[in-house]
Amino acid sequence: MFNFFKRKVVTRFPPSPTGWFHIGNARTALFNYLFTKQNGGVVKFRLEDTDKERSKPEYAQDILEGLKWLGIEMNYDNPYRQSEHGSTYQKYIEAMLKNGTAYVSKENATEMGQRSEVIRLKNPGKKIKYKDLIRGDIEVDTTELGDFIIAKSITEPLYHLAVVVDDYEMGVTHIIRGEDGIYNTPRQILIQEAIGAKRPLYAHMPFILNEDRSKLSKRNQGEIVSLKYYREKGYLPSALVNYLAMCGWNPGTEREIFSMDDLIKNFDILKVQKSGAIFNTEKLNWFNREHLKLLPESEFISEIVKRTKKFNPDKNLIERLRPILLERISKFSDIDALIENQEIDYFFGAPTYEVKKIIWKETDISTTIAHLNKALEKVQNLKEYPTIDEIKNSIWEYATEKGRGAVLWPLRYSLSGKEKSPDPFTLIAVLGKTESIKRIKEAVKKINDLPNKK
Prior knowledge:
4-stranded antiparallel beta sheet; Arc Repressor Mutant, subunit A; elongated; alpha/beta
């Protein structure tokens, strides 16, 4: 996509630090970034922090860390903070009062807390037509808005005035935001005209919705609507970026896996859908699994080593274990669950098990010992770290002749101590020849030590 705008593209991302960074806001930041980068522009970061009671430093820090984690570049070192621009808003209010586009309104304060004076915009009461890059031309009759309030006093601007002034001061040319912003646009255009600001182009994105098509909200879904939740669960930023880009946008092809650079090249804001995008965790997990496969092997191994540190694992073992884990996990926190449930502990140390379970169904003990000794003989003839195919080629013919269950069950159970685990060929490939021999010999010894064996 090329820059077809006459002005240099300047967008903004203006979150309020009044809660943990919402996944929907993350997508808004991403769409701004993709559109702006492909048009050679700049995204400006703004903190709308005038709500002193609800704005918290930890929320602002969470937003900053989340954006950086996703790889979205903005002016983080010197962000524009609304709380630092009170004098700027006052200057515009004074100018509007002077030129007659706003006036001090005497109010009938009938309830405690109401003001006897506020500042209202003098609404010309006309139809406004503006272009929306996603929804096309939109026309609104502003007459019904009346002379709406733009400030509590000369030093206390309300939201609509503050954001219009901010956008003007920051040179914003395009406003890309959620569809709820549609209702704000007519008021903001009237304020733009009142202060002499050039009208930006708009793009109102669809909401991210739940499966039941309700709005994704913290009140209903709790922490799973925050980016923080997905970071802590071990999702990859590249997967979140890929998935969020596909929430409401489609490249028009069958392709689904994109890197950030791919998205910058292929994203087209004109193809963003108008209807809500369903947030599906299973689909997100699929994206994350695909991005795990693309992750450099060294990074994957480093993360697994960190999460299995209680076992003091050997990096070479993790390297051999990597294909198995890639099949079993969709995110890194799944490793924690596997460890907690003792589902992979046998890779890091000799298993404990019920000796009688080594024996396959009706097979007798002497036959089981014979099968294990034959498997042991074949493993001893392998190299230290054989491939799965090499192991299978060595044992398969014998197992087929004598009964696969009777041969392979004792072998697998001896190696893992689990009724459910990878096949014995995979286990030997991961554990290696030396460790596998040790475990098979130990199983034979334990069977021989069984009391009352026949």
